[in-house]
Design goal:
2 copies of one chain form a homodimer. Chain A is of the alpha/beta class and 339 residues long. Helices cover 46% and strands 16% of the residues of chain A. The first copy, chain A, has a 7-stranded mixed beta sheet, sandwiched between helices. In chain A, strands 1-2 form a two-stranded antiparallel ribbon. In chain A, strand 8 (320-326) and strand 9 (333-338) form a beta hairpin. The longest helix of chain A is centred in the first third of the chain and has 14 residues, at 57-70. Chain A starts with 10 loop residues before the first helix and ends with a strand. Chains A and B meet through helix 1, helix 2, helix 5, helix 6 and helix 7 of A and helix 1, helix 2, helix 5, helix 6 and helix 7 of B.
């Protein structure tokens, strides 16, 4: 998503934008057909790929050409092979594969408001029922916990290092809207004396519990099912994680939650929110700022907040020493405040 | 659509591709809300735009920021204004506006197969009923004739100059699948002795007839409703236009039609097909080659044919002197053959 500031008027930009939905469809179809596994296994000719994917040669040829145009495959002498991006991030045999993100990012429940986006803009909030994506027990968060774990998991290491900096010994951690649980689990892995309590809908916590088991930290991983706004979250905690959560709500709601978090923290404890934080111009960096549209489409009043806005919310909730820590090689920023 | 051959693996490219459908949705919504007219009228602050578009301020702010990221608006001091592209191609007050293309390019009947694209790739043909977009009397071609006229009309001048080069005096022209009719009408405007016969579904020809009337050539504009494959098309003609048509069919079907066209032409007469003609690698130029996916999704056996393929079809139908004429500042090429 490169900002286009070409001096020359471009009908191509209009045409490409109106047909951009085809890009998402092509990548989703390729993932569904397990095409990137077939590409990795080779040999990459059309007949072999069609056989491996149980698909037609015409379909495979045209899909592979299209993915080549997008930079998601390479083509040489009529055969297709991985690009660096597809090898690392789309081949299911790669440990860094994020192909499962297609399930969440293309989920009909999230895509549907975009079909009626003019209505969303008119009303100023989602056309989904109630509070949209943050309705109680919304099953899309189970999909998120499964599908987005690989993409989010890549940030767990850097996040763990930042939140634990200078801390040692026994720790109590609250992971609000834990989802896949990978962030709290990372803290538990880095600090063998950490006890982690994860809050989320019960069905989502089952996914987190499975990940905690796989990571060998299950006995220090505690489940607190329910809404972060309603549950008695106990404490006091040394660290509260709020990952991919605040952007779903308006500032007063965020401040209310941050007050509750503040009350649950020890004096000097840390609240750490993982967020898309655009620059103050709200249009850069492109991918970060673009996230605001997803919040418009799928929530009643959420947004991608700037650092200044997040800092104000933290301050009003009683926090000080508020800092932004960009997560390397990701669109996310960790915003931390001190209780 | 810039081919991405970055050496470094890019999770951003995967994320942006999976969410690219949001770009189409945002531009469609902005056109539906008549946002680009409001931008052109000014002053461009959020409150004014919301009032002009009868929409919420939150919705307008987030939509305008998103369009700024795409290069379809500019933002300065919290106000939005046109980019060169939006001023020329999206403001309905601009004579070159192509905003109406959103209606055809986002038409549910064309977008639907992309939702089930994996099934399309498996089977090798559209999931639409019958022959897909080229089913008899398919109403989407009325939408095409209305919505795509501004985008296609920009090519009429160059096309008219090419097909008429070296010809003067009385001429008979057959416009196959005339749609909006703008190409045949252009020939009639350039040559006051040209008689044009337009073939298309009856409902579509009503649009063409309206355009012929507006252009003042109605008395030399004749309607021949029906399928180009079935109607007795008369003749002999000096020129047969086949614009945006051959790509819907497989090569044997194209050859059959070209034979019929050849038989309807005078000796030395010209057949001129306006097509997306990718290079022999089938993956460049990007926008041209990408069109093949639309043919996979919406037809039984269509494609974006290379010049070599089109030349072979022309030759097998009896044509000689086959040449490609790229249309300047457009993704189209005019491929001409001599009867």
């Amino acid at each position: 998503m490169t900002p286009q500031h070409a001096a020359a008027p471009s009908p191509e930009l209009v045409f490409e934008t109106l047909t951009a939905y085809q890009r998402s469809a092509a990548l989703r179809a390729a993932i569904e057909l397990d095409l990137f596994r077939a590409i990795g296994e080779g040999p990459g000719d059309i007949a072999s790929l069609a056989r491996q994917c149980q698909a037609s040669q015409r379909g495979i040829r045209i899909l592979c050409d299209y993915l080549t145009i997008l930079g998601l495959l390479a083509k040489e002498d009529g055969c297709y092979r991985h690009t660096p991006t597809s090898a690392v991030f789309l081949d299911p045999r790669s440990p860094a594969s994020i192909a499962s993100a297609a399930r969440f990012l293309g989920h009909p429940a999230l895509a549907e408001p975009f079909i009626r986006l003019a209505d969303v803009v008119r009303s100023g909030h989602t056309v989904l029922p109630g509070d949209g994506s943050v309705e109680p027990e919304n099953p899309i968060w189970v999909e998120f916990a499964h599908g987005m774990a690989p993409m989010m998991g890549a940030m767990a290491g850097p996040l763990g290092a930042i939140v634990l900096e200078g801390l040692a010994g026994p720790l109590r951690v609250l992971d609000v809207a834990a989802g896949h649980g990978l962030f709290g689990i990372e803290v538990a892995k880095r600090n063998p004396e950490a006890q982690v309590t994860a809050v989320d809908w019960a069905a989502v916590l089952e996914v987190a519990r499975g990940n905690a088991r796989k990571a060998g930290v299950e006995e220090r991983y505690h489940l607190l099912p329910g809404s972060a706004f309603d549950v008695a979250c106990g404490g006091p905690y040394d660290i509260v994680l709020l990952t991919n959560f605040l952007h779903h709500f308006d500032p007063p709601t965020c401040i209310g939650l941050l007050r509750k978090v503040h009350a649950a923290l020890k004096a000097g404890g840390r609240a750490a929110a993982l967020e898309f934080v655009p620059n103050e111009d709200r249009v850069s960096p492109p991918m970060v700022a673009a996230f605001s549209l997803t919040m418009l489409a799928s929530t009643a009043a959420g947004d991608a907040y700037t650092f200044r806005e997040l800092e104000k919310m933290y301050r009003e909730a009683g926090f000080s020493g508020i800092n932004a820590h960009p997560i390397p090689r990701s669109p996310h920023t960790l915003v931390m405040g001190c209780a």
